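Operator note (shift B, R.M.): manual run for FecR family protein requested after the automated queue skipped it. Running by hand, logging everything below so the morning shift can see what happened. Input copied straight from the record, untouched. If output looks odd, do not overwrite the archive copy; leave it for review.
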Amino acid sequence: MKGHQARELLKKHKEGTLTSEEQALLETWYLTLAKSRRSAPLAEDELNTALDEIWQALPIGDSKEANDHNGMRKRRRWIMSIAATILIVCALSIYFYNNKAGREQPAISSVDDFLPGDNRAILTLADGEKITLNDAKIGTLAKEGQTAITKTKEGEIVYRSQPGAKAGSTVKEALSYNILSTPKAGQYQVQLPDGTHVWLNALSSIRFPSAFAENERIVKITGEVYFEVAKVNKGTKRIPFKVISGDQTIEVLGTRFNVISYDDEETIETTLLEGSIKINIGRDKGRGILLKPGQQIQVNQGSKNRKSAAVSPYTIRGVDTQSIVSWKDGYFRFDNTGLAELMRQISRWYDIEVVYEAPVKDYEFVGKLERSAKLSKVLKILELGGVQFRVEENKLIVTE
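Run finished. Output pasted below as returned.
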């Protein structure tokens, strides 16, 4: 960071007008100064001392957080975690791209640009007919039983019972199932027959009936899907909503949550934003695991990641929920995200194969980037942190 840029951020810090991204940039700058004092890596006690000096140097001595011992300790742990790796703050790039005066852009190899993903999906009806939704016209697309399937002007697919239709299918009626699936570089939204809103990320799918049964609502998903579940009653009893993903079943009454269930990820991640859900894993259908808003459960995908019987099949942690669901609002959000995980996101969204020529380094990324950005901009941001690429046809090759 250049001197005038640092002074500008320090001035904004004193005025209390820094954004969270700018705050991260300022702290990262201090960390970089500390790490550059020596050519050899700092020992843990030396790093502790350096971080103490950095913290005292920051002009926040009269801030509430600085005087809050717990808040200071929490932030210091965060700084320690990112200082242990090569840190790159994506917000740094966004900040400088939006403030062009007086700066130089890093040089990268010229590549054929790749456009970001957009709204595209395939709807497979019960009779096997496939509808390419991005090409379909606005209006009624099909009818199944007493349900009309409509594409709105916003591009969402909506399932609505026609006038005079009974609410829910009877036990004797056979359910007819539809599948909505997105390819790489695709995303889509659907409103299910019960009014539940669903967002699908790239390379994802949801299987659901065109009309739910009277006593339960069950869907099956792959990939990454966000739910806002409608509350539906039968008399005074709430009709449960269940989501099957991999080896787990999520039981819901009415809530907002996100599920990541890709085959190439080591875990299935379920994050609760609002309400309450219960997770049942594998054949263990006992009392289940209850999540609270702000919690995420990571379930190992089968036994392939289970090193021993003593290893727990799941972990629960608190997370920044807005970071988890930012994809549906048009952003990549990185919160100490490793390079391999970040590359998998890029591969899905830009429909490009990622290949590694060298071992994956222990990078961590923090920040936010619009999903509407072209691939070239994303690569420029990553190259600021020392990651090197080249593009050959439809392959993104990580060279360093």
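Quick read of the result: The chain is about 25% helix and 35% strand. The chain has three domains: 3-84, 118-324, 338-398.
Leaving this for review. - R.M.
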